[in-house]
Amino acid sequence: MSNVGRCAVLILVGAASACDPVTSLVEPEQPAEEHRPVSAILGHEAFLAECANCHASQDGFDLAFFSFPDSTIVRRALGHVDAPTADDIVAYIRTLMVDPVGRFEASFQPGGEVLADDLEFAMRLFGADAWPSGMTTADLLAIDPTQIPVAIAFPRWSVEESNVDWMPDGPFPEGLLRQSQNAAGHALARYRETGSDEDLRSAVGSLRWAAYNPNSTVAPCAPTPKARFRPDDCFQARRWTASLIAQHMLRSARTEPMYSGNHDAWWGVGHAAFKSMQNGQSIENAEKNQVMWMYMGWAFAPQNHSSWYLAGPLLRKQLPRHATFHSLRAQVSRVEGGGQAYSDLDAAVFVSPRSWVADVTAFSLRHLIGRIESGDVPSDEPTVAIVLGGRALTQLEWARRSVQTARNRLYWKLEAEEYNAVSTLFERVLELLPSQ
Ligand code: HEC
Which of 48, 53, 54 has the most ligand 1 atoms within 8 A of CB, as the residue to mutate? Predict the structure, then answer.
């Protein structure tokens, strides 16, 4: 390469002084790099090479969006790159056109605030510590769980030294991306090219499958055999996927629900935390992670998942009113033909505060009666998760059982007089359900 050519290349990377003999004479000890101007272009390249895999974006959106100060970006960058490159990254991040939020903003936190406790939740929502006796299905459906403030703090983007944040500790594992002819790798690359909702949806689907695939020996979330489930790896892979979706939504200031599978991916982070406890290999802050991620995922897709997953932990966290709201709001969202809405009745009776339970049960049973009378009855299809005596229960069998269990629970929870008042509603539901 000619001298001119060499200098041109060096100037391109910002090291002009190396081509300047006068400067070299004056400051002979100065290392050349310290003189090169910072370069946003190099900053982007460095971000792609050194940061993008963990931060799940090609452009460093999160670093600008969450208002991380220059000093913090430099401090964190120095764990991965040298000082001049850290400055380049800062320069690059400052070129991004984003409308930032506060550094400690909890994204998607309903109403933008965290309530003090369970009682405040009820007072704010219903104006009283009671389930409103006149509540109808339509009233409850009109309450949007993504907007109703709760006493559950949603994850912040980055919390150093803690796993109660969005940021996964590492990249989505290369080995998982490459499985099944690079299925997830391809889907992700396509999403990166277009940034479309549709390609996000298929990338998320492929990433979730890559982490879950029961036929793979490396999928950390594989359901069976039990020994193959690796709690922290599963939690991390799911957080990575979750943070990809979050950035997609935050970029476009989108607050309305997307395709429900995307929100299930948020729920799935909580599910990894739950399974870690169930398997006796609890990850850090397991229950806290379970509750916040499941609630966040559910709020955007309230028709999905058994309410027992979340109602139980909410109750243990002294949030029985939240748990009751969750069970019943899930119930009114259920799709037709399933036994799920009946299981929600049982969950609601189980978690409801003693002083609420009569109104809660009456609401829930009236809802079920309305369903059946409008032609929505549980089907003869087998359930996926409920197996008794070696055989999957049908949706109808599950529904009947749930109603009976709820009734027994209530019998022990209430005085005779209160019990008798709702007992006729139980009778009515059991009468209306087709016999098996
Ligand atoms: C191996 C994965 C990984 C890589 C690579 C990585 N980060 Fe991070 N980064 C994280 C995690 C995880 C967090 C969340 C905080 C924590 O857990 O420490 C984070 C948080 C941050 C924060 C916020 C810190 C705070 O104060 O909350 C900044 C800024 C940051 N990273 C910048 C960078 C830059 C710039 C690069 C590339 C030079 C980079 N990171 C590369 C994993 C990574």
Answer: 54
